[in-house]
Design a protein that fits this description.
By secondary structure, this protein is α+β, with helices and mostly antiparallel strands. It is globular, with a radius of gyration of 15 Å. It has 3 helices and 8 strands; from the N terminus they run ααββββαββββ. The strands form 2 sheets. The protein has a 6-stranded antiparallel sheet.
Length: 141
């Protein structure tokens, strides 16, 4: 039987790279399979002035999608992206950003996910879809 994680445990186990963006899990809904992460991205991650480099945009969305799975089921130890596709709807500028990840479908070994990235004004900046391989924790862990 699946057991969701709690917010404190999710934030305690964030990947180191998220600290570069002042990232944190702001909220999650294990029943809906969603996770909302917030970030403050500095201009040192930008090109052309204050426009965040696209790879970083994808990384923020990937983190939100992954954390939707981690929040949903504590037996998930890790995820590995098999495919990820990002659509950039408008320029993502440095500053406060919110990424929402959602589980579309989940099996024992595969997750189908999507995500959305918003600026501080609530404008949708980018969307993504992903397929990820699920690595489960050993049963005795």
């Amino acid at each position: 039987m699946r057991k969701p994680r709690d917010l404190e445990r999710l934030n305690a186990n964030l990947p180191v790279f998220m600290k570069l963006f002042d990232g944190k899990v702001a909220e999650f809904d294990a029943e809906d399979g969603t996770a909302t992460l917030t970030f403050t991205v500095g201009e040192n991650f930008c090109h052309s002035g204050d426009i965040v480099q696209g790879g970083f945009v994808t990384a923020l969305l990937d983190a939100a999608m992954s954390h939707a799975v981690f929040a949903y089921d504590d037996s998930v130890g890790n995820l590995s992206s098999l495919e990820i596709s990002t659509r950039y709807l408008e320029a993502t500028r440095a500053g406060f950003l919110t990424a929402v990840g959602r589980i579309v479908r989940l099996s024992h070994k595969t997750a189908f996910l999507d995500g959305q990235l918003f600026n501080a004004e609530g404008n949708l900046l980018a969307t993504t879809q992903s397929v990820a391989k699920i690595y489960r924790k050993p049963k005795d862990a």
